[in-house]
Design goal:
By secondary structure, the chain is of the alpha/beta class. The protein folds into 2 domains: 44 residues; 162 residues, Flavodoxin domain (Rossmann fold). It contains 6 helices and 7 strands. Strands 1, 2, 3, 4, 5, 6 and 7 form a 7-stranded mixed sheet that branches. Helix 1 packs across helix 2. The longest helix has 43 residues. The chain is globular, with a radius of gyration of 25 Å. It starts with a helix and ends with a helix. Bound molecules: flavin mononucleotide (FMN).
Length: 208
């Protein structure tokens, strides 16, 4: 009788182990499948057509533009490059305003750190900046002045408190007259919570 009870216990135990291992296998396969498909979606772009190889270049002082740059990368993949000034701007907002005002009046662009990038590897460039006094931030103008963007397709994106992108787009029209300037995207502070959808709509329009 004891033998029978042990035998039954062993059968139940082995059965449970077998079931357990097949379930955990299924789970890990499901997980890796869904991770792989998430990654390939991110590379291809979620619902966006094939955009080729993208470079996302941006400047951001208080991280708003960085957040948009990262959302673009999430949706189209590609490489990201952050423009950094050699001399950081102060953390106090009013002090930044004073310095930028002075730089603009003196027609002076801040030095930026050197970062090697081979632009010939990319089909197009997403170029992001905060709007400063109605126009792109000075470090971005500096980056443009140091790189050959002729015959490149440039898709500008901007963040601002409330300003529209019109003045900034005209500025780029003059500065990037050797490039193909695509439609721009502007995200104001009240748009911020809707960034993902605004980026997606913009990318879809560009890609089609
Ligand atoms: C020097 C300076 C000038 C600015 N000028 C404007 C402006 O003209 N219009 C506007 O709506 N916001 C203006 N802003 C606000 C920024 O455009 C806005 O906060 C932006 O999202 C900041 O982006 P970031 O966090 O990537 O630096 C200005 C900010 C600074 C620091």
């Amino acid at each position: 009788m004891k033998k029978l009870i042990w035998l039954l216990a062993a059968v139940i135990f082995l059965g449970a182990c077998g079931l357990g291992s097949s379930n955990s296998d299924e789970t890990s396969t499901d997980e890796s499948d869904s991770q792989a498909s998430e990654q390939s979606e991110a590379k291809k772009g979620e619902g966006v057509g094939d955009m080729g190889k993208s470079l996302i270049v941006y400047y951001s002082l208080t991280e708003n533009t960085k957040a948009v740059a990262e959302e673009i990368q999430k949706q189209v993949g590609g490489e990201i490059l952050r423009i950094e000034t050699v001399e950081p701007y102060p953390e106090v907002y009013d002090e930044v305003l004073d310095i930028v005002r002075d730089q603009r009046e003196a027609d002076e662009l801040p030095e930026i750190t050197k970062q090697e990038v081979d632009l010939s590897e990319y089909d197009h460039i997403f170029l992001g900046t905060p709007i400063w006094f109605g126009e792109p931030a000075l470090p971005v103008d500096k980056w443009i002045s140091e790189n050959d963007l002729s015959n490149k397709s440039i898709y500008p994106f901007f963040t601002s408190g409330s300003s529209s992108i019109n003045e900034s787009m005209s500025h780029y029209g003059e500065l990037l007259d050797q490039s193909t300037l695509g439609e721009g995207l502007g995200i104001t502070s009240s748009d911020r919570s809707n960034t993902s959808k605004l980026v997606k709509d913009w990318l879809t329009e560009i890609a089609n």
